Amino acid sequence: IAAALAGRGRRVRTLASRSPSPGGPDIDVRPFSFDSPTRLAEAFDGVDTFYNTYWMRQGDASGYANAIARSSGLFDAAARAGVRRIVHVSVIKPALDSPYPYFRAKAQVEQALLAGPVPAAIVRPALIFGGDAALLQNLAWLLRRMPVFAVPGDGRFRVRPVHVDDVAALCVAATDEPAGHVVEAIGPERPTFLELVTNVRDAVGGHARIVRLPAPLVLAAGRAIGAILREDLLTRDELLSTMEGIADSDAPANGQVALSAWLADHAAELGTHRTGAA
């Protein structure tokens, strides 16, 4: 998003826990000040549009409650500073009655945003790839090294991968959409999960034998590997929600980058390192 805005000649400021990577656009970096609403509002002084990407990948009920409270604090700070517009990055199919805390919390944040005084738009991506997106990068890392890779169930549940640049373009475009605008970020391809894994394995030259196992066994294997790597590779909610089709959509594609073409172009570097879950 920052690169897309900088390409339009816009000045960019970010709230971050660490500085952006070198080589990116010239960005004014400010620290998060969740413990001080006054300082948090000061960080928004002079800001026209706030693109909110703040979130956490996983957590328990109290962790997501904290993420909801912090998101509301960001919206309040933006309103106090006179921000004209908020564009919020959510997730596909959030629901207040979802059985999964992640999607319930995302829905609560959307509800708080749309009830606030600042006109807002919402972009809902499904499975993001490109850049350093963790899921595909870590999937490729495993497929480069594992002799066997387990797919849950029959692997026929579908996903809608969308490139990070397409998500960014939709966020920038949403700046000028009417208040309350909501759009799903959808890529042009709709592979099954089994096809996704097979395509990534073949692209990176892996030799893993792909087997189908019940979801509990896949989770157990993921926990075992994660314990060795000291990283949560896959959570129960991530796995079950994907199997239920939450990462799929019947909406028409609005992304331009096809995963298959991107894999062919980036196979050499894909999966050469793991990406943290933060």
What count of helical segments does DSSP give? 10
Task: Classify the helix fraction into a percent range.
Answer: 40-55%
What is the general shape?
Answer: globular
Give the end-to-end Cα distance, rounded to a whole number of Å: 18 Å
Strand order in space, largest sheet: 3-4-5-9
Please give the largest β-sheet. 4 strands, parallel
Label the structural class: alpha/beta
Give the topology string: H per helix, E per strand.
HEEHEHEHEEHEEHEHEHHH
Q: Beta-sheet strand percentage?
A: 15-25%
Which stretches are poorly predicted, pLDDT < 50 over at least 5 residues? Answer: none
Mean pLDDT: 90
Radius of gyration: 19 Å
Strand segment tally: 10
Q: How would you explain this protein's 3D organization?
A:
With 278 residues, the chain is an alpha/beta fold. It has helices at residues 2-7, 37-42, 61-80, 101-115, 134-145, 164-174, 193-204, 215-229, 236-243, 259-266, and strands spanning 12-16, 27-31, 49-52, 85-89, 120-125, 127-129, 148-152, 161-163, 182-185, 209-213. It has 10 helices and 10 strands. The longest helix has 20 residues, at 61-80.
Topology:
Elements: H1 2-7, E1 12-16, E2 27-31, H2 37-42, E3 49-52, H3 61-80, E4 85-89, H4 101-115, E5 120-125, E6 127-129, H5 134-145, E7 148-152, E8 161-163, H6 164-174, E9 182-185, H7 193-204, E10 209-213, H8 215-229, H9 236-243, H10 259-266
Parallel strand pairs: 1-2, 3-4, 4-5, 5-9, 6-8, 7-10
